[in-house]
Design brief:
With 296 residues, the chain is mostly beta strands. The protein has two helices and 19 strands.
Length: 296
């Protein structure tokens, strides 16, 4: 009898020794097909999660590919009783925040020259040409693939031509033509991460553009052209991850916008111009950019 009691006590001791970690500090893995695994997570790598679990009074080790995991949480269950009552709180296994800064060349398409005669300048000006685009973006991902964000960009062109500043001038003079296009919009985001942890990014945005065209005669104020309109923005990009939370992004984007209204201002005159059902001033632009990405 004493021998049986001793053996039973030893069995209880070893059972508690081996199974207590599994019962007292249960972790949780939830797969993308909604399966839940109560276990003890041993190691998380770039490709899989290694864990141990209790089944039929024995401990087993296993692993699951990281691509099959939706979320996982350490010490989700403190014991068997709390496991039944504790509210499920899942920590996403994907990065939720993405910050980006970009810079690169762009080409602005312009279908027409703007006539400056309404403000007494016998010239026409075109705003098309190559310029520099600088932008910043913030993205918040609601799932592994889809998110929302905010985007800001500024596009500048610098040009010059020789023309007359008034009808009495006989000799053309140099006129500098500098344009500034400011965009602010909200975005819908899609991303796909490959096996190398690099990201394919697609973005569609709707926002507002402010446009400024500054004409200067040897540095002196000549005329300002201003306008604003609703605009669309579309981007395709590829991010090369350099470190866990830092990457370098390459992207091509197109901005779609037409100005149907423009205001011209000189020192002595101010004139509003409506294009009266015409196509308007085209602010369409194609950009090629490179930048840094920060993930968290």
């Amino acid at each position: 009898m004493k021998k049986t009691t001793c053996l039973f006590t030893m069995f209880l001791f070893f059972a508690c020794f081996f199974f207590a970690p599994a019962l007292q500090a249960q972790d949780l893995i939830r797969t993308i097909d909604k399966r839940e695994i109560n276990c003890k997570i041993l190691k998380v790598t770039n490709t899989e999660i290694q864990y141990t679990f209790a089944e039929n009074k024995q401990l087993h080790e296993a692993s699951i590919p990281l691509d099959s995991v939706d979320t996982f949480k350490y010490k989700h269950f403190k014991d068997e009783q709390s496991a039944q009552t504790e509210k499920l709180l899942y920590s996403p296994s994907y990065e939720q925040i993405m910050l980006g800064v970009d810079v690169g060349p762009g080409y602005k398409f312009s279908e027409k020259d703007i006539d400056l005669h309404p403000v007494g300048i016998p010239e026409s000006v075109s705003s098309k040409g190559i310029g520099l685009n600088v932008g910043a973006s913030f993205g918040y991902f609601l799932s592994k693939h889809f998110g929302v964000g905010v985007r800001y960009s500024q596009f500048n062109t610098w040009d010059s031509f020789y023309g007359k500043t008034d009808s009495l001038q006989t000799t053309p003079t140099k006129i500098n033509n500098n344009t500034f296009t400011y965009y602010l919009g909200v975005s819908g985001l899609f991303r796909y991460e490959n096996e190398s942890k690099n990201l394919f990014i697609a973005e569609a945005s709707l926002g507002y553009i402010n446009y400024l065209d500054m004409l200067r005669n040897n540095g002196a104020f000549l005329v300002d052209l201003t306008g604003s309109s609703i605009a669309g923005y579309f981007k395709l990009g590829y991010d090369l991850r350099q470190w866990k939370n830092v990457g370098i992004g390459f992207s091509v984007s197109y901005t779609l916008c037409f100005l149907n209204y423009m205001r011209m201002e000189t020192d002595s005159r101010s004139k509003s111009v409506n294009f009266n059902g015409e196509s308007g001033e085209n602010l369409g632009r194609l950009d090629f950019t490179i930048g840094f990405r920060f993930y968290k």
